[in-house]
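Contributing new complexes? Match this layout with manganese (II) ion.
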Amino acid sequence: MTYKGYEAVVGIEVHVELKTKEKAFCTCSAEYGGKANSKCCPVCLGMPGALPVLNPEAVRLAVKAGLSIGCEVAKISRFDRKHYFYPDLPKGYQITQFYDPLCRNGEVKIKTPNGEKNVRVERLHMEEDAGKLSYEDEDLIIDNNRCGVPLIEIVTYPDMVGAEEAMAFVNELRRTLLFAGVSDCKMNEGSLRCDVNVSVRKVGEMALGNRCEIKNINSVNFIGRAIDSELKRQTDIILEGGTVVTETRRFSETKGISERMRDKETTADYKYIREPDILPIMTDTDYVEKVKSELGRPPREVEEELISSGVKDQQAELICSEPKFADYFEKVKLTVSDVPSAANMFVSDVIPKMTSDGGFPTPEVFSECLGMYLSGDVNIVSARELLKMCADTGESPRNLAEKRGMFMLRDKGEIMRLVEKAASECPAAVAEIKKGKLTAKKVIVGQVMKLSRGRAEPRSVNEAVDRYFGSSTLG
Ligand code: ZN
Ligand code: MN
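Output block (do not edit by hand):
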């Protein structure tokens, strides 16, 4: 949106927790949750003399994340200490990469109403998470379980204009990292969180105004609301003749506006120095190529392929919103002839089961049920019922359909006998047909369906009825 002729220009910093078993510089568990301070040791608590040792799995996932957004991986990168004082940071500094980050120059392609757009990524570096402050009754609890959990920070250029583009960026980045398997990307648990830098300018102008940073927003929806509210606030300041102060703000979810926290820190405030206890990370081409080979296809590509094979846009988007949906559907795609029908059935009958605790059929069972429907062996109601029953019992769809008498009736002789029976039961309709009122054939068709308890295959029934009356009216 624009406001009084102004637009918001947005750059984003995203912190993502890497999915390692152990922390970045010690062997404590990196798993989320648990009793406060149950997952700490002298290293992650920053005790004097404790020495950090870099977790190679964290490096691998960070490189993988960088490659998934098209970054260059540095041959040599190093760690630095970023100093600040806060109760959740027992060391008094954070281990991060300031001067020589692991990755640079990536990009994330987003869809906008005006077509596709590239959001450039300036850098991706590794760092460690801090602890968490919370209140229990009256007491302030400092929980250091998250201290030392490996993070990557991804920094974009101010390439996004308005809330929609920023939200599209976060959604696209999130699913890209999810498909790369580097993080859970759960915004509600803080494993993906965003700092949003917003400035405003008159629509059509290029120069950037003073920016404010809104810290730690934990939902895509709030990112949009924070940007819109910041656009109004900054524009009104400018139109009243004031100057926007460069500062750090937080978004109040209840009030729907951002509030001042503090002046924006400058680089000098952090007194960066080289981390002396950790060796540089050196990567060679073989290593980078090996990590690259472990990456699957990006969700964008999978989604485009689904759309080009006839799947509806919204269904393709849903299938590509979670790796487990996309993986399942990839397997189904290999064995079915009609991909759009498979998508319909998958979205309506399987995804709801996969997102709840319910059991769901294997891709093989899914393909078999769909195939039975597409070939006319069973009707859609039976196909859906089979999907559900096979998931519950583990039985094969064909056996189950046989046992329950679900196969469609297609035998010409048997259907003709049913037509004859229907005709004898509906003399009024037969008389009408013989007078030339052919719409009365529907009555006979309906009666055949009833006699077969819905199992007669409709096309065969229509043909048999035509044949029956064709000969009898002529004769
Ligand atoms: Zn530890
Ligand atoms: Mn950071």
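Reviewers usually confirm one structural detail per submission. For this one: The mean pLDDT is 91.
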